[in-house]
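Re: How this chain folds, sequence and tokenised backbone to follow

Filed under: protein folding, tokenised backbone structure, sequence and structure records.

Contents: The amino acid chain and a row of whole-number tokens, matched residue for residue.

Body of memo: The sequence and its backbone structure tokens, given next.
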Amino acid sequence: MGGELDRERVAKYVVARRGSMGLTQEQLAERAGVTVKTIYNLEAGERWPQARTRSAIEAALDWRPGDLVRIGEGLEPVPSASEDMSLALRELSELNAYFADLQADAGDKRRMALAFLRALYGEPEGR
């Protein structure tokens, strides 16, 4: 933790994350095993929690260790394993929809997609 942390930025991220998870301050405090005042102070940018408390809050928000500091330094939180999996599943679902569309198309769109995929993977045309 080098310079001054942007507590206001951290506060905004915590509020947004808590809201996206559908949690109240009380519910987040309960999940993290801290007081509601601790969550309030963090979200108000009032006080910076100790390392153990930060770790508990990060876990309750499904963030990785050190994310509150990263956010305070102007970086983005590292996606959790569940977020990575969720994103991968959404992307695979999207790809599945594209391939279903291509399967129904016997024309240029399908040939162009195949040529693109071959170029992307460096495979020869006649395969």
In short: The radius of gyration is 22 Å. The longest helix spans residues 81-104. The CA atoms of residues 70 and 77 lie 6 Å apart. The chain has a mean pLDDT of 89.
